[in-house]
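Methods — Computational structure assignment.
A single polypeptide chain was analysed. Its primary sequence is given first, followed by the predicted tertiary structure written as structure tokens.
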Amino acid sequence: MNNVMICLELTLLAVGAFFLIRSLRPINQLILDLTDQKLIRQWKTLSILILSFLIGYLVLGYDLWVHKDTSSFISLMIALVLFLGGTFAFLIGQLALHTANDMKHLALLRQESITDGLTRLKNRRYFDQRLSEEVALSKRYKLPLSLILVDVDYFKKINDVYGHTVGDEVLKNLSNIIMETVRDSDIVARYGGEEIVIITPNTDKKEASLLAERLRDKVEKTVMATVETTQEVVQATISLGVCALSHVILDKEALLEETDQALYLAKKYGRNRVSISSW
């Protein structure tokens, strides 16, 4: 009977130790995947504790083997508790890893739902939501807020002459130039077709117009695409409309309408220019 209890206790310890070792794999994967340093430290602490428990399992297993003639109900209970502890650590590790993977998948799906497929800028839906939020914040805290609307000059002609593949390359390169030029706090989205919109929080109309002029100048000096078959370089220019919230422009709709009107004037008076709303 004593030998049976010893075998049972050693089996429980061995299986518990096996689960403990297996629990280290998802925990280590979590440590590699996480970016939050606080969480990384916590999971590293847990992995060190698990290794400490493993040493305890080995010590207890050795003690049971050496003193196998004195096995008791208490030692069996200890072995059972350690077995359950190893199983629990394994399940926690698996659950944490699956949860982290699910969260990453959900974050990816959310990112895709607010991202334009071609330019990788934010899409119109995201822009509409953020503009409403920024207008509300600006009015509440009396902060400046400006909007810049960007349009590629003669974009239809680029598509007609060089094809839509070159047109797409122009839009992607324009998006890259804008993202490299704006601040991290600015919100850039594809407004529709060849139009791109920039929300510039805590920025007055003068500062926004300087940003718009930098963008216009950069695009004018940059090769925007290359025709693959002939290696012909394609230049492009942009027109920009700028408007800001004011005592006249009080809400999202007025801001959009006036920015669009400023863009219309930039195109009307020759393109490749920045037009600033007088309001």
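Note: The radius of gyration is 32 Å.
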